[in-house]
Amino acid sequence: MTGTTTKHVVVGTAGHIDHGKTSLVKALTGIDTDRLPEEKARGITIDLGFAFLEEVGGLTIEIVDVPGHERFVKNMLAGVGGIDLAMLVIAADEGVMPQTREHLAICSLLHIRAGLIALTKADLVEPDWLELVREDVAGAVRATFLEGAPILPVSAKTGHGLDDLRSALRGLAESVPSRGTDQLPRLPIDRVFTVKGFGTVVTGTLTAGALAVDDRVEVYPRSTEAKIRGMQAHGHAVASAQAGQRTAVNLQGLERAAIARGDVVGLPGTLVPTLLVDATLELLKDAPRAIRSRTRVRFHVGTSEIMARALLLDRPELAPGETAFARFRLEAPLVARPGDRFVVRSYSPVVTIGGGTLLDVDPPRLKRKAPALVAHLTLLQTGSPEAVLEEHVRHVGAAGVRLATLAGRVPFGPERLRGLLDALRPTGRVVAVDRDWFIHPDSFARLRTLVVDALAAFHRANPLKPGMSREELRGRAGGADERVFAFLLSSLVAGGTVKTERDKVRLASHEVRLAPEQQRVVDRLEEDFLRAEAAPPSAEEALGRAGLGGDEEHELFQVLVQAGKLVRVKESLFFHTRALDAIQTKLVALLRERKEIGPADIKDLLGISRKYAIPLLEFFDQRRVTARVGERRILRAG
User: I need a labelling partner for 575 at 20 to 30 A (CA). Which of 106, 340, 581, 636 fits?
Assistant: First the structure.
């Protein structure tokens, strides 16, 4: 590791009350993590405390000192979300206690992979007793992630064993894989306070990504945005923070009352607040009882505690030691990502009973008992990254999904996500509507069928209409997203299935076919307008002369309008297109001769009344043949 490389590893203390966690951390780091007056008065840690060790080579070991008292396990859970290593603290004069076991279970449920055991207060016991306690502890951690981990006697009072402990921590920390940089930034908030002259400050462990001063951020799930005014790490101002780092963030423009522990700081529009999550649920072997579906539980993820109902998907109840798929209906919005670990505690009495892994933070609304939901979750749990991504795209349906939205729903960072999408596109497993919008081919095929079937039905019901309006067709296709619909139409046109003319869409195979009698009526209507030249009849008059009732909406009159042979000049006033061309030729010739004309001139030119003259002048203004100057018209240049 070079001198310029920085690595932050988070170590969480765990253990029973009064076993010396805070004293040990102070002896190791020189930092007193008891910060509240009531903590100092009572000699116990109520809330989270933080300290750090700076090692050579750019390694910083962040230490979260969590409370050990049973009543404060909730606060302890708020601190363990971003932990890499556990330091289980057991007093040599007391040995393993109830909270020791619960904290160990919580660390196991959160899939903390490694750690060590510190036997504190070693100065208070004889060597023989110390050896007995060591054997007892080794038995207690058997079959857990701490089996075979170092068990180190220490004394915060005399300093005995501290060097060995620090050396062991350093060795473990160096073996922890560096956190990937390809992740959306997330800072679960564990403390919120106000600093005079600065405003609102939040703290937490940056679990993923990086944040920097002047970044625009969003506080989830509150949908409030702010700017990072300043940041601190270890009491010093910093320009940025990276994954694994304990960070204090000064948020500009937000009141203290607008934020609480459990909220998450991230980039705007990247995370998904949800009231429903699907997950694996593992019940501890020593859980007091089985849990039935719809049991109310305390759901802990990140720094949040939310009440929820656990809905079992494939069985009526879950026995201790068993694992199953579950859906959690949350009583407040949760902000998390697939792959996050969580802990479940019973509603009453409040004890840790299990935990698991989030699989879907925006689950499909499949019926809970449906086999399809279990199949969906099995794929998310065991499938390849490509299969998991395809499954997420499949379940957004015909709307498709924006890349930024998808990023908050999958367990991959933005760069990996883009790479996976690029790999899936050539094989047809996802369809790219554009660079930032994707749809599953099954959804696209269903949408295509809807559109083609809707056009076919329209043509059957309206054989004399050349096509269907674009917006009506989009409505028949379930109100498909505009960009998905536009992409679909383009592909249908390119494939020769449909044709578009202005705002009308038709099947390429569709042609307006008139019966002989209908054709005679249409020909007569057209003749009427051609003969009338600059003084055409109304639609009602023309239809009446053809022996029909009705107005301009009559389907045979519309045949001429849709074919472009009749042009609407004003409201219910139509001219034949050839008549308009002839009128324009005469008008241009007159203007070249006179330079400007008025309504009376066009009346004389064409032998028509004001009823036709004014609409015609306005029509040629709109067509940019003429330009109006006062009550006169001139020939428009160019």
Answer: 636
Domain assignment present for residue 180? The answer is no
- In-domain check, residue 365: yes
Domain that holds residue 203: 187-266
Tens of pLDDT along 281-294?
999 998 999 999 99
Q: Do 430 and 450 fall into the same domain?
A: no
Buried b (16+ CB within 10 A) or exposed e, 330-350: beebbbbbbebbbbbbbeeee
Half-sphere exposure for 238 (CA within 13 Å, toward CB): 17
CB burial of 96-108 (b: ≥16 within 10 Å; e: otherwise) equals bbebbbbbbbbbb
Cis ω for the linkage preceding 221 (within 30 of 0): yes
CA distances for 92 relative to 33, 68, 140, 577, angstroms: 22, 16, 14, 101
Which residue type, as a one-letter code, is found at position 349?
P
Query: What CATH number is associated with residue 294?
Result: 2.40.30.10
Q: In terms of domains, do 324 and 361 share one? A: yes
Phi/psi zone of residue 622: left (φ > 0), alpha (ψ -120 to 50 degrees), beta? alpha
- Per-residue pLDDT at 5: 63
Q: Which amino acid belongs to residue 470? A: R
E-state strands within 387-457: 401-402, 431-434, 437-439
Distance between CA atoms of residues 636 and 627, nearest Å:
5
The encoded tokens of residue 277 equal 């999550």
Co-location of 366 and 388 in the same domain: no
Q: Would residue 434 count as lying in a domain?
A: yes
What average pLDDT does range 435-451 have in this prediction?
A: 94
Residue 330 has phi, psi (to 5 degrees) of -90, 150
Structure-model confidence comparison of residues 147 and 55, the more confident one:
147
Per-residue pLDDT averaged across 325-351, rounded? 92
* Domain edge (last residue) among 374, 397, 417: 374
Residue 58 lies in a domain: yes
Alpha carbon distances (Å) from 561 to 56, 521, 552: 83, 14, 9
pLDDT of residue 318: 96
Q: Measuring CA to CA, how many Å separate 15 from each of 96, 143, 290, 496?
A: 9, 18, 26, 71
Residues 361, 397: one domain? no
Q: Are residues 15 and 131 in the same domain?
A: yes
Does residue 38 sit in the same domain as residue 74? Answer: yes
Are the C-beta atoms of 62 and 11 separated by less than 8 Å?
yes
Rounded Cα distance between 436 and 410, Å, is: 15
Residue 310 tokens read as 């656990």
- Rounded CA gap, 66 and 68, in Å? 6
**CA–CA dist 546, 561 (Å, integer):** 17
Output the pTM of the full model: 0.76
Structure tokens at 305: 């505690």
- Count up the domains in the chain and report the number: 6
Give the model confidence (pLDDT) of 93-140 as tens digits.
999 988 788 888 888 888 888 999 999 999 999 999 999 999 999 999
177, burial (CB in 10 Å: exposed 0-12, middle 13-18, buried 19+)? exposed
List all residues 6 or more positions away from 118 whose beta carbon is below 8 Å from its beta carbon: 24, 87, 88, 89, 90, 152, 154, 165
362 half-sphere exposure, CB direction, 13 A CA radius: 20
CA 329, CA 137: separation in Å to the nearest integer?
Answer: 38
Residues 25 and 145 in one domain: yes
Question: Cβ–Cβ contacts within 10 Å for residue 179, how many?
Answer: 21
> What's the CATH number where 88 sits?
3.40.50.300
Q: Are residues 292 and 367 in the same domain?
A: yes
Which residue among 266, 294, 325 closes a domain? 266
